[in-house]
Amino acid sequence: MSKATSPRVRSLLRREAVARIITGAALALVVAVVFAIFGYIIYRGAGSISWEFIFGSPKDRMTQGGIWPAIAGTLWLVGLTALFSLPVGIATGIYLSEFSNGSPFARFLHVAIANMAGIPSVIYGLFGYAAFSIALGFQKSILAMGLTLACVTLPVVITSTEEALKQLPMELRRASLALGATKWRTTYRIVVPTALPGIITGAILGLSRAAGETAPILFTGVAFFAATPTSVTQPSMALPYHLYIMATQPTVPAPKIVWGTALVLVGMLSIISALAATWRSRRRRKLTW
Amino acid sequence: MSRAADVTARALITLLAFTAIAILASICVFLVQSAMKSMGEVGLLSMLKGTSWYPTSDPAEFGFLPSELGSFWVTLVALLLSVPLGVAAAVYLSEFARPVVKEFGKTIIEFMAAVPSVVFGLIGLYIVVPLIKTSFHLDSGLTGLSAGLIVGIVCLPTIISISEDALRSVPDDLRRGSLALGSTRWQTAVKIILPAASSGIFAAVMLGLGRAIGETMVVLMLAGNAGILPSSPFMAARTLTGTIAQETGEVMHGGLHYSALFTMGLVLFAWTFVINLFADVILDRQKKKWS
Predict the structure, then answer these.
(1) Does the beta carbon of A91 lie under 8 angstroms from any beta carbon of chain B?
(2) Which of A45, A57, A106, A168 has its CA at 20 to 30 Å from residue B29's CA atom?
(3) Is B168 exposed, middle or buried (0-12, 13-18, 19+ CB in 10 A)?
(4) What angle do CA A274, B97, B192 make, to 5 degrees?
(5) With the C-alpha atoms ordered A267, A273, A278, A283, is the resulting torsion angle positive or negative?
(6) How far apart are CA A241 and CA A48, in angstroms?
(7) What ranges in chain A are assigned the alpha helix state H?
């Protein structure tokens, strides 16, 4: 600092330094919490991971053995959720970005979607139970759970599809239309393929959120113990519920199973989201407008 | 041919766009329909104001107040932790951080948002609960405070990323103007940027609030789920979400208890609906202001 700086300026600069440290510390704390959580899960869970743990069935009143039925259950749920939510979600995203032209209905739809995203997951559980398990008669089944999770995932898929499409430059659409292509042909031959990485990444992020949800499946068919599923009409196990029920067991706590399950769940979700995010940023760098 | 395809595809896509609306409408319909029985027999107001929740005794009592108070304490603790921490982190990210740090911080926060809440609950059970128990000499660490602290962490990604969006959406001209007049970065942040982004930050807090009220698994695992009226966050508490999650699986379909749980769901839904709508309106206005 030069001699010319007045006490007032010095005090301002000091204040700035303090503010920088305080806000920086806030960010550092958040980042440290995330690292601590991941580190702790790996530290506690790594010892449990083995071939038998991943591909075996639970044994000795769930205190030993593996978690394959829960992994398989979660995979079935994610598959069904994708089947129900992706076509509808992507179509709605396309509608909002390409066909709505800012109509009042589109504005209304935006509000509805923002609200759907904010509805507590346990409300989806109540709705899924009343609508899919009881009213439609699917009872407690993978089908009822998959439909419920599809409702939870839908707003995420819609929003990310719309965002991905809106990022494309208008010239791309105009060029295609000028060559005589119809609006729909432009959309499915030009707009959607170009925006596909963004759409797929959004879908993957939405589905990985569905894979980690517990509350929506509590009443619609998740089981404490069930065999590896063979059809969508059965109840099934699921990783997040297995984690919850094993962690809160009053009688026989099995920390090895609990932390192993946590590591498998978090590991699966993180690897998938990291791959999706990397792929998207690579594709983005390749394409420049 | 091509024109026919165009018309069909357009119609189909428009039709599918109605699905989201249809789902939202059916959520309302199913909640209201299942809640009717208890609203008729017990009355909405007497449930909202009732101080005891003994759904299985005879006569059964369906007072929501223990759950409402529990939700209040958990949410209060969560917001006291996450709002200052989250907004400060967002200010650093948007105003001070170098690009590398910024990119890194945002990636970490994205990862944080992808962690399922049941995993946060597990961490709380093994780390926060024993810590609260020993530091406050309580009989049990399963309290509103423990749940609130973890719920606060769960809300952080929402609050940080939406606040950061709001701060970043303030045009750079404002920053440059202020810096050119000789203000420090911090003066610019406090006197120019934060006021300009205030409505967006307020919306971020509202969305965090919605997230906190709606958080289920963390509360189910950490709050203790006692039936008493909690007079402080140091007591075991049950929340609206926790009560629904714990009891709906066990009740008889179509009974009064079942219906009362749906009324509770409806109350929760109404709260989050209003909060989200409010946040949405504010965000929309903010977007229009700077574009």
Answers:
(1) yes
(2) A106
(3) middle
(4) 125
(5) positive
(6) 18
(7) 7-45, 51-55, 68-94, 104-118, 121-128, 142-166, 170-178, 183-186, 192-212, 239-247, 255-286
The token pair at B247 is 């009891």
A187-206 residues touching B, CB cutoff 8 A: 187-188, 205
HEC string for B81-98: HHHHHHHHHHHHHHHHCC
DSSP state of B120: H
d(CA A228, CA B234): 42
Chain A residue with Cα closest to B97: A24
Pairing of strands A64-65, A58-59: antiparallel
CB contact under 8 Å between B20 and A41, yes or no, is no
What is the full per-residue pLDDT of chain B (291 aa) written as tens digits? Answer: 577 888 888 899 999 999 999 999 999 999 999 999 999 999 999 999 888 998 888 888 899 999 999 999 999 999 999 999 999 999 999 999 999 999 999 989 988 998 999 999 999 999 999 999 999 999 888 999 999 999 999 999 999 999 999 999 899 999 999 999 989 999 999 999 999 999 999 999 999 999 999 999 999 999 988 888 888 899 999 999 999 999 998 888 888 999 999 999 999 999 999 999 999 899 888 878 776
Cα B291 to the chain's mean position, in Å?
A: 28
Assign A137 to helix, strand or coil: coil
Residue B89 main-chain phi, psi, to 5 deg: -65, -40
Tell me, what DSSP letter sits at residue A34?
H
- Say whether A26 and B109 touch across the interface (CB within 8 A): no
Please tell me the distance from the alpha carbon of residue A211 to that of residue A73, in angstroms, as a whole number: 10
Phi, psi of A281 (to 5 degrees): -70, -35
Give this complex's ipTM: 0.93
B180 to chain A, minimum CA–CA distance in Å? 15
Kindly report the pTM of this predicted structure: 0.93
A32 Cβ neighbours under 8 A, 6+ residues apart: none
State whether residue A135 is helix, strand or coil: helix
> Is the bond preceding residue B59 a cis peptide, omega within 30 degrees?
yes
- Are A221 and A235 in contact by the 8 Å Cβ rule? The answer is yes
Three-state secondary-structure class, residue A65: strand
CB-based contact B81:B152 (threshold 8 Å): yes
**Mutation choice for B interface testing from A115, A207, A217 by most B CBs within 10 A:** A115
Alpha carbon A234 to its chain centroid, in Å, reads 24
Taking a C-beta distance cutoff of 8 angstroms, is the pair B154, B252 a contact?
no
DSSP designation for B143: S
b vs e for B239-255, b when ≥16 Cβ sit within 10 Å of the residue's Cβ? bbbbbbbbbbeebeeee
